[in-house]
Structures are given as structure tokens and as C-alpha cells.
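Hi there,

I know you've been waiting on this one. I reran it after we fixed the sequence typo, so this is the corrected version. Both the input and the resulting structure follow.
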Amino acid sequence: MTEATDSRPIVAITMGDASGIGPEIIMKALARADVYAMCRPLVIGDAIRLREAGAIAKAGLEVAALLGPEAARYAQGTVDCIDLGLIPAGHPFGQLSPLSGEAAYRYIERATRLVQAGAADAICTAPLSKEALHAAGHKYPGHTELLAHLTGTPEVSMMLVAPKLRVIHVTTHIGLIDAIRKIEPGLVERVIARGRDTLQKSGIAEPRIGVCGINPHAGENGLFGQGEEEEKIIPAVATCRAKGWKVDGPLPADTLFFRAARGDFDLVVAMYHDQGHGPVKVMGLEAGVNITIGLPVVRTSVDHGTAFDIAGKGIADEGSLVEALRQAVDLAPKRG
């Protein structure tokens, strides 16, 4: 299959925090034939680290250290890596490191430039450590906010996808009191719109969207809370319904996620981080995927952290990364 006729999207895979499980799960994932059948994987990271991780994981792969994407061959058995040369041999696994935090930032920065230049079609990120990122001087709450900054995007949303459940968040990496303050009808409406647009692009013509309340029982007509549902959520739902969209809410979160997993809704809109993350991780931590919605580039990610406690032991599971690659392929612009 030649470059001119190869319709598989090129997915830039960032290595994440080099002290975590990112290098291991990348090497395990790229040992799988099904990954190469669906995409052309291009790792942005450090070749030395990938070789060390591959040996630990017994992946049986070569690593080609590249200066740029033009030299990539995308042949199973050899991992194509744009080698930034930031991590020295023998760098410790499982320990917080500002060096790993700086490297994780540089991998994302390079991958973003590649997609913006048309040299890759999507970004798939291995996990980084927010603490290490901050220790390196990059004060972002996580990948989502970092990518928004790098692409000049004023507002994005986080969507989590697990088997039988999709959740988009109105707020994410802020405290609960701050989240409640930040929620307002315009923001809720924009998040609903971003989620609906993403599902329509993925082939769901008229997505059914359930919107969580903030308080227990969605406030139960003012019995709980200070009228947050009436002030912050109901106007947004009414605006969306006036457009003919299939949007219901605010609904009690304690039953909405069950109903969505049963098939009543295609998407749940969660108001804050733990409201959405908890159900998704119960449903499928190993197969969960994090998708940043609203960027000018496609970005998916594993839905787990750096797992310093098991890093460097060869036991990390690559399932979430493989699923994240699959989602990136589904969302990427089509070639050919």
C-alpha cells in the first residue's frame, strides 16, 4: 500500500509522562496487528525510552528514531518515533520528575504542530502527570487545557466514552464550589451543542441527550439547593429544545447514567468532574477513552493516569490506548 493510496489516518501518539506507563502501553499497543490495520501510528516521544519500555514489556519491536514524519514507514514490527531526545537512558520509572513533565509538554507541542501542518490527522495521548507538568513550569490542569492553549481555542469540552456510555462535562478540573459558580445557561447550551455536533459527525443523526442536575434529585422543584437548576440549566435545555434537539433535563444524576447505559440516551451532560467521571470509570476503566471536543484538531486519550505504582513492571494494560486509537480513527478526517 503506497502513501498515495493509503487511506489509513496518521495518528500522532504522544508518549505522555516518561516515568509512567505511557511508553509501555504504547509498545504493547503497537505490537498488535489490529492497530496497524486501522491507522498509521506515529509516536512523538523518545526512542531510548520506548526501547527500554519495549524490553520490559517483551514487545519484540524495533524502534526507528526519526527527525520528521516524512521518514516514517508505518510497517508493523518497527515503531516509528519522532525522537525528541529529552529522556536519558535509565531515567527512573515510577517517580515524579520535572524532566518527564517538560518532555510530556514538548511531545504535545510537536504533535499539535504536525496535525496543524497536515502531517498527521489526529492526536492520541498517553497519560501525563499534572504534578510533573506543573513542576516543569507548565501550569495547565491537564491535556485538555494545554491543547486549548496550543491551538488558540477559547473553550473546549471533555467527553468520556466507555462501553454503553458517553459523557460530556460542563466543567472539569476546578473545585466543586467553583464549578457551581461557573455553570451558567450559555455554557451549558454550548456544551450540549458541541456534544451533539460530535455525535452527528460520528453518524448519529439525532442524538438523544440527557442533562444532569446539580443537586440531589435535580433539585426536586426547589427542595434541594438554591435554585441552581432553574437558574443555570433549565434555560439552556429550553433553548436547545426550541431548536428541535432531543434534549431532556435537568434529570437526577443518580438514575440518568443508568438510563443512558440502558440505551435511553446517546449522551449524558455532566455538570462537574466527579459527577461524570465516576460512572464512566465504573463502566469501563480499561476501555475508557477521553476525547477533547471543540478543538480544531482531533484528540483522544486513555482514560487513566500515569500509574507510577506499576510503571516499569511490564504489567500495564494497553486496552484503553487501543480504544483511544480506534476513536481517533473514527473521528479523523478521511484520506483517499
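Quick highlight: The longest strand covers residues 40-45.

Best,
R. S.
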